[in-house]
């Protein structure tokens, strides 16, 4: 047992007052242990589930968070973690790839290489892709300009491409590229009308060079952005931000929710209840180190903090973890300050070491 270093709580008796009786000494020691443990009760709160036991080889060894920062929005930075809970930023706060611009989204693709997607701005018409063998060196792979005005059942879509994101489905051996596109120009007296008009669009591809025609991913008539797709078992899940503004008539607004489908491209059932508080966005989903739980991160924007919810099933109930409070006794996870959204993915210990060496 390690005793706390709080000397006021666990002070030693003054010199010359040491008891000679063994039984009294044992009683004093046990009393000190009980007192100190009670005085630091918060530090004894259980850690989030999903961690590997000491000596157990984790199923998932390490994680990469490719993200932007509040100071340098839309550029590429890396943070890494061994346990999916405690993250450290790499590169001394410097960009890891100067050519990149967008909302970072990386997937491990059909050929064992990593693919990164971005765009210069929402107003830019072209989406860009890069490829890497090691997550360190990136080279250009392709460009894609979707025909926004050809989207079925979306005749008033505006030429806007928001936050392109990639998912690779190994079962069908195809990529799904999603983004959000609005159909209302923001009026001066109601800027939320623009965001309430966002709809999630997708295309598919076998190689990220040839693409299908764009289409809406969901049938629902409300706003969604920041969609992350995940397959688990025989089902597909769309983790998304409900982009309607929260009111008493729409209490789920600006929260993270999950929709489910038996098929990759839907139809998706209407999303379930919120998994986060209001005014959260940019969900990231990773499996826990021992593979028994899911860790769902989301940003409290703009760049305020990151929240974390945990469940043992994508169908199950979720609860929030305490972290980023700046009170060590309560923090069960830690993120670098002012990180903004991007993507998280599982990496190996070898890749973790290589990233730390390359971006010290």
UniProtKB/TrEMBL annotation:
UniProt GO molecular function: hydrolase activity
Keywords of this entry: Hydrolase
Presence of the UniProt keyword DNA repair in the record: no
CDD domains: GH43_Bt3655-like
Superkingdom of this protein's organism: Bacteria
The keyword RNA-binding is assigned to this record: no
InterPro entries per the UniProt record, alphabetical: GH43_arabinanases, Glyco_hydro_beta-prop_sf
Protein name: Glycoside hydrolase family 43 protein
Native organism: Aeoliella straminimaris
